[in-house]
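User: Could you check the structure of this?
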Amino acid sequence: MLHIGVIINFMDNSFLSDKINFDYYHFNFLEEEIVYQFFSKISYEIHINVSYEDINTISQLLKSAKTHDQLVLIESNNKIQILIRDICTALKQIFGADLKDDEVFINSIYLHLNSIMNRQIKEKTLENVYLADIKNKFPLLFEMGMSVKDIISKSLKCNLSEDEIGFLCLHIGAAYDRYIQNNNKLRVVLIIPFENSIVRNCIKKINQSFESKLTVIKIISYLDEPSIKYLDIDFIITTVSLQFSSKINIPVIEISTFVTSEDEYKIHKVILEFEQNQNYELINYLKHNYIKEELFYPHLSAETPEEIIKIMISYLEKSNYVDNKYINSVLEREKASHTSFHCGFAIPHSIYFNAKKTAISVAILNESIKWGTYTVKIVILLAVSEEDKDIFRIFIDFLGKIFNNSISSSKLLNSTNYEDFINNLI
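Assistant: Sure, the predicted structure tokens are below.
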């Protein structure tokens, strides 16, 4: 749908040539005819012109979505193949997300890169109405987009705007979500003693209701304690009462075979407890290793974002966390796109993982200041070394969840000292 929306915008702004007559055109595939019929119908509402290339491109995307095969078009474009490979390599190296085998991502990013080239040739730009939401609600995804900006700009010999980066983030975000769902789920053993249609429905309901949160790695009919001990699992779901002969430190959820709403609540509750424990462990780890009290400034006064960044980095430099060139990479990132958020925070950081040692410095401003689009009260400056680059991904993702929870972000924004700030992070 994103590609169709971009193409319609492209057409609606009269970027294409004169209308092409399809009366005598032979469609090779059903998907081509479907796409043509679609554009024909909406052309009654919006005056647009459609090209053979657009019909062929969208129809191939439809075909690939159905078969999960790579677009044939990619094979004929070596430059794009290399660029997509470089994008996947960068996302894996920086964020640990291996997307090279995600054909849906490969196909969609190919089509989008093609669209970027077409817009560059015609010297046209598109406004991204989703940009503010992407930056505020999905900061990690926007950082992913920023991380591949230079790779794409150099390959296509263009300067990508924030709007274009935002469009890229939509593709990257969908692929990253699929990657996380496939690799970061809680692992569960299901114990059900019988095999019948009711039991099969029970298994199906659990898989459907909790598909994004857990994966059932094994279904067994009885409690096999020796095997359970050596399985790498997070908890057990069972339809029968269990009696352990020895202590097994694994949560057990007893449900009915019919999986009622009460049963679903039990499972949701355990999942939530796991997530809360993970957050608690993360904050404790960050507190003891990176968010040091000596790098916390509860009463900082400055008039501009640049002045604040210079003050905070000067402290980091004196403590040997960064060198004297670090400030340039932070200001470079800030110039590319302001790191402020709608909820009153800013997270300035370098484009690169070039700190000597990782540190998270926090400043509470005496007076809020204008920082790009938004007004900022608390500044969280990140200095991340190459060996700790996973911390960047984890912490940015964690902050994004806080910023999108009005209660959590309000509590954090009202912090007055170091202990307040740490406690409000949890």
